[in-house]
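hey m, so remember when u said the tokens were messed up on ur end? i reran from scratch. heres the input so u can diff it against urs
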Amino acid sequence: MIEAAIAAFTAAYVAGLLWFLLGATRRSPSIDATVPSPSVAVVIAARDEATRIEPCLRALAEQTYPRDLYQVILVDDGSTDGTQERARALAASLSAEGHRMSVLDGPAAYGRGGSKKAALSLGISHCNDAAIVLTTDADCDVPPGWIRAMVDGFSTRTGAVIGFSQIGTPATLNSTLARWEGLDFLLLMTAAAGSCAFGHPMAASGQSLGFRRRAFDEVGGYTSVQHRVSGDDVLLLQLIRGTRCWRLGFCGEASARVVHPPSPSLRSFLSRRARWASNAPLQLRLDPLFFLYMSATFGAAVGLLTSLGMWAAGLTSLAFVAAVWGVRATAEGALAIVGARRFGRLDLLRVFPLWVLLQPLYTVMVGLAGPLGFFRWKGRRVALGRRAKA
């Protein structure tokens, strides 16, 4: 009976991987004619990013997109390390050169009990003339062609575009943990590309995301998911998809690949993943198919670990253990190879054997710590996916 359950969860998980794989190998659909250069607003929420904010703002000032057609709005969400002061000084300097940059004080507008969604909402409310809103993180490296490539992903019927982002570069990842995280995130992005090809994206990242202001307003912005600490990206995407009025696109162009630094420690990495997993229960309402896949992923991970225990106790055969682990590893390996080739990250495949061995344990850990446990993010305690009371 237990073997049958393990096999069923593994089969469901592998079926999802094959679905992602098929989508990731499909050609992108043709884009309908759209306004060549619509007005754009880049909105960034920042907290305690004093060492990274200057490179980010300078990169956004060096975009190939027409300078008079985009603005950058940075919202400081209660920084205590001088982020706001540095950002204001640089924004003033860049504005004097003709760039449209502004810095807003988040807590002054919505109080000290803020959040990333509150900061983004404030920024978006100050860009009424923008047809398209792009978001990235304050610690990201944004290439010069990012805005242009993201905008080109919009047709007249596109409500949102998921941009490709990656952890570090081949030259900057200098530890096994960083490469492991890089491969893990690459698989997430490949799954996003694959599922988006079928019109049902199951992943996104605020490191590179775009959406029409009209689509954002139609779903009420972040209002219905404001209580969740995470989800300014994938939850918004699900809300827009749920209207059934808009297409969703994926931008994987080399000129638009945003780079995010690796987590500084294992604890930081696990906390970030737990934060992402904290929204799993909400997906039952927003996207039942996504919820079922996440359940299959968690169930398969538990099953793989259980199979090892059963074999050690003499309750199952080595052949059964090898079969479930082998089938899963083969499907994951195929997806990793496709993603590594498509996005130019073959360097990450060297840690795939280690990733395969540790991924079930890591999945169970963050799967429990996210929806059921407690974690910290940006110095703020979180419980059950919500900010904990002081």
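this time it looks ok to me. Residues 183 and 248 are 25 Å apart (CA to CA). if urs says something different then somethings off w ur setup not the seq
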